Structure formats: structure tokens, C-alpha cells
Amino acid sequence: MALYRAHVLICHGTGCASGGAPKVLEAFKEELAKKGLEKEILVIATGCHGMCEFGPIVVVYPEGTFYSQVKPSDVAEIVEEHLYKGRIVTRLLYKEPLSAQKVCHYKDIPFYGKQHRIVLSNCGYINPDNIDEYISRDGYQALGKCLVEMTPAAVIDEMKKSGLRGRGGGGFPTGMKWGFCAASPGDKKYVICNADEGDPGAFMDRSILEGDPHAVIEGMMIGGYAMGADEGYIYCRAEYPLAIKRLQTAIKNATEYGLLGEDILGTGFNFTLHIKEGAGAFVCGEETALMASIEGQRGMPRARPPFPAVKGLWGKPTNINNVETWANVPRIIVQGAECFAAMGTEKSKGTKVFALTGKVKNTGLVEVPMGITIREIVFEIGGGIIGDKKFKAVQIGGPSGGCLVDEHLDLAVDYESLTAAGAIMGSGGLVVLDEGNCMVDTAKFFLEFTQRESCGKCVPCREGTKKMLDILTRITEGKGVPEDIDRLLYLGNQIKDASLCALGGTAPNPVLTTLKYFRHEYEAHIFDKKCPAGVCQSLLRYSINTEKCIGCTKCARNCPVSCISGKVKEPHVIDQDKCIKCGACMDNCPVGAVVKG
Amino acid sequence: MASIKAIINGKSITAESGMTILQAARANGIHIPTLCDHPALSPFGACRICLVEAEKNPKLLTSCTTPITEGMIVHTNTPRVIEARKAVLELILVRHPLECFSCASNGKCELQDVAYELGVKDSRFADPGDTNTSHKLEDANPFYVRDLNKCILCGRCVRVCEEHAIYHAIDFQGRGIHTSIQPPVGSPIEESDCVFCGQCVQVCPVGALFEKTAAGQGRPWDLEKVKTVCSYCGVGCELEVNVNKKTGKIANVTTNYSSPTALNKGRSCVKGRFAWQFVHSEDRLTTPLIREGDTFRKASWDEALSLVAEKLGEVKTKHGSDALGFFSSARCTNEENYLMQRLAREVMGTNNVDHCAHL
Amino acid sequence: MTEEKKKIRSLDDLRKIKEKTGDLTSARSEVDKVKVIIGMGTCGIAAGAREIMNAVLKELEVRNLHNVAVETTGCIGMCQNEPLLDVIRPGEPRITYCAVTPPDVSRIVSEHIVNGRIVQDKLYGRAD
Q: What is the CATH number of the domain that holds C111?
């Protein structure tokens, strides 16, 4: 096998790919061929690095140079200067927002400094379509170890010892869950990977599937061996075409190697794996709805018990874990449960991947040890608030979660502490909000989502979230009445108490936590008919400060509904009845005479 | 079956293993209100009216889906439970049209019953314009009407169609507030797999599905159930004919899912359920008729049967047994057909026996 | 790599593949590596640095050495001594060789990189 002195890793995650990464890769191949370096320098398409905002990302090894926002036209320069002559192209280096300094090495970027990349260790590092690269990084060694050296019971013990808990949101101890399924009588069992990631803004699972599909497959096989299942399903939403393609390739390659199929590694263990594409219903992330969907039924949750471990897919004992949980499994087996359990807090072990979005300088995918504080995530990894505005809250756990505020900044993130504070770990969405976000509007956004995605089966979720949404809508339109706050609290608590599945059971959380920490904002909307953050359009009012106005007529000329009148060089006036609050006058005023409030 | 001891509302009860809390309560004479539950259908857990509290369990449980376990201490009427039921009921009533006065189900409506039991008159959460009006009344077929504005999405019709009719002609469609029960996307019920057996109509707890044929024929309290066997075919389905005590006329036909004597176990076909109008037809024969020349005259059964016996005897003596042939009907029961062939073979001495289903 | 579609039939097979594929990603690893840095400024290239590079890569392949990172660097101002080749063994000082010719490469690799003995006659000095 030829030795390549340098490797050019071009991120082909969904973000970078849509940013033009495939063209960058073509350009590299062309330029390297021109220079006769194609035998010396290897070009690889990898999975996601997590800093999608700065894509397409190109990392050059052995130096570990991290280039961001690379365009095909930049490639000739990188090849000529860096790969041929050894001079780093500084203009393409990632610029650190905190210090505004260029950072050369991957490992020196503060975004990665506080991270602890275990599950994501292969993402952006290996070519996900090349099974050999996975094997070269200890891939399938864990499976081999389990099949040859460990009994199924020992594997489950190891999982219990590791303290791994479900990363899909519930946080149920994985080893215990496996134990239930293993103990359930039945000669046919299934394991399922829940890849129906649907929280708005969350893409942890997609990145893992795209960047390291074999880790998920290996984890499922280990689970299959431990629980006595010989068949698995990966339920992946159809909106993830790249993840599905990578999984298909991975399954094909593993099957060709005999790592999937019959008599795996000569141990007599059989395992087959299917991909089932989901049609994009959020509720299909709920395990009973997910199984109904695989069976060809409408994706609707059913009451538990019976639990899937007893009666799951096609009525057989079934174990469902999410992508991140499965991807942790091979690492735990290879490195040992103690090593995994050494990370994190007393009850929450290991790391958690979060999708950090919102008003922070560095957005993207971050993997952090459990127990890290929210302050570290927001201000160190995230680099603080954009424009150095005031931090307001973080929304953790997506539409099922809640918001946390200033007083929680030093909260150590784990399952228990988040739940106690009114949020949930969830699947890992983390949206940072600043003073420019209206909390009523934010709560309304999430409730719109849950109402739209409610399966319609149980009354509290179907009817209750609609009623809450109606109330929030009228509050943001300035039509709220004083009783609305009590109504929201009452409905929220009743929906939590009476809903069938977790979708309804957690849907009121964004409303209840914003009411807890930002009641004054609701009151401002209801009593003062004002949106303090200036977000809710119906409550906005544009007016012209007559002392500042110079009568330049620019606002009047740019008003799309012609509701501004006034003579040249005289102060202008906005007709409030006609105004559509588009803000064009404010944008165009040269002297800042238009005020919003 | 192993028996389980538990406590419901302070009362010690025994139940069979595998029973739900609801079944155990009912078996012990304890009432829990329900909407989506139906004894003939699989538990669904959708309406949340049957919520109860169990000690050591922080969550409210749907009694229709939760198995009762040894030593379980259940409370069916705590303030928390009542409040949850009221909240759920009032959420249903936000969109449900309160037009009970004209509703076909007035008096047998289970939503009405639950509201009455909980003392709820209307919804605290309803705002003007909330009442459902978006669905058009669907009455293109001659058998039943769908008024989806009244539908409370309990899923009974979907379950009965799948579990008893075995057609799965309808299912839930849409999400959130736009969820509704529909045949496959875009087609009306008349073009679906629906065979109009009407079981969905019978199990509908409200007035979302009602028989066209029953309109104006009598309110539930006017009706008396008469158990009978369907006369349409040899299957012998047991039916309940609901007769209006005031008019003496049939209002509609239903079935009994729990009747120990019914071999159809609650099922019926379109004819058995909807095609009973002939009963009150002017042209219907009510006595035997004997032909005299070109006309018929009314006769008693004794007279008619004697005439038949006499004529058959004549033919047999004159031309021998095989001059006779016995022909029976697919509408008769197996037993009736069996008896007829015995009459043919043993009494009349011929093997000339046949049946209309050969035609 | 079509010939590798061979089935993996045992844990040993798997381990063999791992060894065989070890160098697939080794260039990306940053731990415990010997670094070879070749001066690729205009001066270096003119003096034959490309040939030195080729020789280094060939030598590493022949000797099946995966634990070596080969990097390039620009002109460091000693153009008259090009081609320059630096070797850094983990925890040891950076050693610079000057006026390297392709035949020197195999000696540098076998003596210095593999066995840790500096090739005195090509030595220019310590660069750090």
C-alpha cells in the first residue's frame, strides 16, 4: 500500500456539501494531478466537523491545518503553497471570533478546546465510505471482543457498569434496558436504531450517521449479540438522504467483508440490518409510533405497557436506542466501562453531543463531557453572544425542553440537574437566546411545532396544544386577556399530566418555563400591549422623531404602502392605521429619526 | 387463571391476571367513565377520560390500557383525577358542536353522559369560532351519514373496521388539529373499501356517524330491543331490531358484541343492518295464499299445509317418489335445510334434493 | 483495493486487516510520530527537493514505516545549503541535514529515523 505523505480531508457533511465541498474535492484532484502529487497526497471526503457555519472545511494532515470556507478557486493556492511548498495559506485559516486571530491547527481552535470528542472522534477524521479506515481506527474490534471473549450477559454487565444512558432524550440506563430485552422470552428479537431526529435545529444523529456510520452498525450488532437479536432496523428520516446513502454503503461494505450476515467472525452469530426510511413525522421518534411505522401502520404511539422489550416490532421483544447511544457502545467495549464511567457526573456518565445554535458566535456540533456548565458551552465553546449582546436564556431539549436563564449558567449539565431546572437533556438541541428574542414568541414557535406534529390520537395533546397556541397567538397580537396566564398554566399542567406519550407530555415545557422565568414579558404583552424585545409585529409601532427628522423624504419614498406623509425639509409622519410595520423607513432614514417601540 | 388482589377506592377486589384496571373495576361494580373504550375493541388509550391514580405511580394512568397488578392501590375519583377528566372533556367540547337538540345521537351520546356525570355544561376554553364547521356533511350513500364536525377522534370506527369487519377502510389522517378519520387519501367513502356493514355507526359514541334509515324513527328511549335472527342468508346472524314502542315500527337494527348466543359476535352485513324496510311493506305476504283459478285466496297455515301434504301424497302414489323434487333456499339455516332433506328422503322417499345456490 | 473484498472470517482476520490498513489514517495521527520536514521553497525545489521528497516516500514505503509524518516547509534563508531536510524524533531536538542527495536519504532513514543515530557527515546543526 502506497504511503501518502499528506491527507487532505474535505468535509462532506450535509452543511459543507451544500456549501460546495464536492466541487472543492474535484478541484483538489485536478490541481494535484497537474503537479504530479496525486500519488503523494490523498484526498478524502469525510463526515462533519461540527462547525458547519464555516464550511466547506478542509483539514490538511499531518500538520492538522484547518482551512475554513474554502472555495474551488482557493484550491490551486493551497496545493501550490501548502502542499507543494509547505507554506500555510493564512488567509484561509479559521478566524477565532473571540480574539479575532487566525488559528492554524485544528486542536488549537477554542471551539474544540473544551470538547471531548468520543462519539464524534471519527467524524471529520475518516472517510465514512471506506470501511478500512474505520477498521484501522479499532473499528469492529469491539464486536470481535464481544463475540469471541464475552458472554452476552458480560456485555450487558459492561454496559451497566459504564453508566451509559439513552441519548435520545429519556436518559434511561442503557444496560438495564438491554437487560429487560435479553430477559424477555422469545426466539426472535429485534434491535432498532432510532434515527428519526426531528427537533428543530438538531443534527447530532445525522452527523454521526454521515461521518461514522459503521460505529452505529457495530453498536447495534453488539446489542443484538447481547440481547439475542439477529435482525436490526435503522429508522432514518427520509430528509437525511446523505446519511441514508452512507449507511447503505456501510451496510454493503460490512456485508461484503462478512461482518454482517451469517456466522460473523466464525462465531455462529448472525445479524442482518435494514434501513427503513421514515416519512418525516416528528412523532415517529416515539418508540411505539416508530415501530408502528416500520410495520406499515400510521405512526401513532400506543400505551405502554406492554413495553417494546416484551412486545415490540411485529409483537416480538425489541430494543430501541438512538444513534448517539448506539455509537457509544463500541467505544465503551474497546476502552472499558471504567474509562467511560470516569467521565461525567455521578449519575450521568460519558459525553453528550449538543447542536449549539442561536445567538452565539460559534454555532455547530459540540461534544462535551457530562457535568460541563452551561457557561462553558455558551461562552467558551460558543464564544459568547453575537455582537456582545446580553445573554437571555438557553432553550435546551428542543420543543420538549425548557429554557434556562442567568442563574443556571453555572449549572453542571446532566440529566437530573436539567430536569430539576425545568428543562430536559432531550436529544441535545441547545438554542442560545439574547435580549433580542421575545420569550412569548419563542414559546409560540415551539408550540406551533408540537401542535403541527401531534399525531392527533390523544385529546390533551391534540386539542390542548391548539388551545395553548391560540392563547399565545392572541397574546403576541396584543389581544391577550389577564386570565390567559392562568389558563396557560392550567392547560400546560393538565396536558403534561394527561397526555399519552412524551410528545404531549413535554409539549407545554417551553411555555411553562418561559412563564416561570419571564412572566413579566407575558404581562408586558397582555397589560401594556408591548413586546419588550421588539419581535411581535402586531405590538410594534414605528414613529418619527420630529426633532431629528430632516425632511429628506427618503422614508416616504421607500414606504411600500405610502403611509408616510410630509413636505420636503419638514418633519414626516407615519399613518399608524396604514403602517404594515415592515421597517423600511427605519432602514432608510439617514439620521436615525425613525423609532421602534 | 391466576387471581390478583388489589384495592380500588379503598375496597379490596380480586381480578384475573391480565385484566386492565378498567376491566377489574367493572367486574367489581366500580364505575369509571370512558369514551374511546368499547368492550368489543382493543384498548386505545386516546380519550384520557378513564384516567385514574395509582399509589406509588407519579403519573396518571389510563385504566383502559394499564394492567392491574398484585397489591395495586387505585383511586378513581381523587380531585386530581376529576380535574384531569374535566380538563380533557372541556378540551373535547372546545370544537364539538353543542347541537344536541337536533342530533341523531341525543340520548345515547356517550359524550353527553360523561359531561353530565362530571357536571360540565360547556368548555371554559372555547372561544368564539372554535366550533368545528370545516367538514362538509357526507351523505352520498344510502346507508349512513358522516358528520366529521362532531367526531371526537376516539378511533372506535377505525378499530371496529380493522378488528371486526377486517376491511381497514378508514384510518386517521392528518396531524394535530387537522387529524380526521378518512378513507384512503382523496377518495370519498363510497369509493373506498367500505362495505357499509355499519359497525362503525353502531360503535360511534357521538353523532358523527348515524344511519340515514333511522332518521326520525325514534329517540333511544322510545325503542325496545327485539332479539332475532337475520332472514337474509343461512349464516343466521343474531340481530337486535329496535322497535319504536309508540309506532310499533322498526327504527334501526343493531348487533350485540357480547351476546353469548350470537355466532356473528356483533358483526353484520349491509343487508342485515340497513335493509329492513321490507318488513313494513304494503306488498308483503302475511298469510299463506291458495290459488283458485286465476286468483289467490288467503288461507290459514293449517289449511295450506294440509293442502300441500295432500297434493304431495297424490303425486307420490300416482307417479312414485322420484316424481317429486325438493328445492330449498340459501336463506334458510343449515338446520332448516337439513330437516328438509330428511323430509324428502325419509318421509317422501326421494333423493331429488337441491338448493337455490346452485342456480 | 478490489482484492480486499475477501471475507473476514475470524477475529484474527480482522486484526490483520487492521494492521494492514493502519497507515490509512496514520498520516492524520499526531501522537508519537517522527517528523521529516523538507524545505520546499523555490530554492529547495531548484536544488532538487522534489527528488528528495520522492526518495523519502519511497524509502518509507520500502521499509513499511507508518509512524513518520512527512511535511514540507518554505525557505528558511539558507538557500545555499538546500536541499534541507529536518528530522524530529519525539522528545528529541530538531536535526537539520543540508545538501541532501537522493542516495543520502536511505542512510538518514535507516540510521536516524529508525535507529536514532544522527548521520554526522550530512549534519548542519540543531535548528531549535
A: 3.40.30.10
State how far the Cα of A366 lies from the Cα of A115, in Å rounded to an integer. Answer: 6
Q: How large a percentage of chain A has pLDDT more than 70?
A: 99
CATH topology of domain A351-434: Ubiquitin-like (UB roll) (3.10.20)
**Do A524 and A530 form a contact (C-beta atoms < 8 A)?**
yes
What is A131-341's CATH topology? Rossmann fold (3.40.50)
Residue C127 has pLDDT above 70, yes or no: no
With CA atoms as reference, the chain B residue closest to A470 would be: B127
Strand locations in C1-128 (E): 34-39, 68-73, 85-88, 94-97, 123-126
**A460 and A498 in contact (C-beta within 8 Å)?**
yes
The stretches of A499-592 forming alpha helices (DSSP H) are 502-506, 509-517, 519-527, 554-558, 584-588
Domain that holds residue C41: 25-126
Residue C128 pLDDT grade (very low, low, confident, very high; cuts 50, 70, 90): low
What's the distance, Cα to Cα, between the start and end of chain B in Å?
Answer: 51
d(CA B91, CA B82): 14
What lies within 8 Å, CB to CB, of C115 at 6+ separation is none
pLDDT digits (tens, 9 = 90+) for B83-121: 999 999 999 999 999 999 999 999 999 999 999 999 999
Please say whether the beta carbons of C80 and C39 come within 8 A: no
Name the residue facing A64 among C14, C30, C73 (closest C-beta): C30
Q: What is the pLDDT of residue A108?
A: 75
Q: Using alpha carbons, select from B176, B120, A111, B131 the residue that is nearest to residue A124.
A: A111
Q: Give the nearest chain A residue to B52 (CA atoms).
A: A498
**How near does any CA of chain A get to the CA of B251, in Å?**
33
Smallest CA-to-CA distance from C78 within C109, C28, C39 is with: C39
Topology, domain B289-358: Rossmann fold (3.40.50)
Average pLDDT over residues B282-293: 92
Q: What is the pLDDT of residue A379?
A: 93
At A86, the pLDDT band (50, 70, 90 cuts) reads confident
Q: In chain C, whose CA is at the least distance from the CA of A130?
A: C24
Considering chain C, what percentage of its residues have pLDDT values greater than 90?
0
* Contact assignment for B174 to A456 by CB distance below 8 Å: yes
Higher pLDDT, C26 or A83: A83
Q: Do chains C and B touch (3 or more CB pairs under 8 A)?
A: no
Place of cell 530554492: C43
> Is there a contact between C71 and A135 if contact means CB atoms under 8 Å apart?
no
Return the partners of chain C (3 or more C-beta pairs < 8 Å).
A
- CA C108 vs CA A101, A317, C21: distances in Å: 38, 63, 26
What's A348's DSSP letter? Answer: S
CA distance A7 to chain C (A): 7
User: What's the complex ipTM?
Assistant: 0.89
Cell numbers for B61, please give them. 394512568
Binding-site residues on chain B for chain A (CB distance < 8 A): 43-48, 51, 59-60, 62, 65-67, 80, 83-84, 87-88, 91-92, 94-95, 124-125, 127, 152-153, 155, 171-172, 174-179
CA distance C13 to A265: 8
Question: Under an 8 A CB cutoff, do B48 and A491 touch?
Answer: no
Closest by alpha carbon to A304, among B45, B274, B111? B45
Cβ pair B48:A302 closer than 8 A: no
- pLDDT, greater one: B150 or A423: B150
Among 3.40.50.1820, 3.30.230.10, 3.30.450.20, 3.40.30.10, name the CATH number for the domain at A6-109: 3.40.30.10
DSSP string, B204-272: -SSSSEEEGGGTTS--GGGEEEEEEE-SSSTT--EEEEEEETTT-SEEEEE--TT-TT-TTTT---HHH
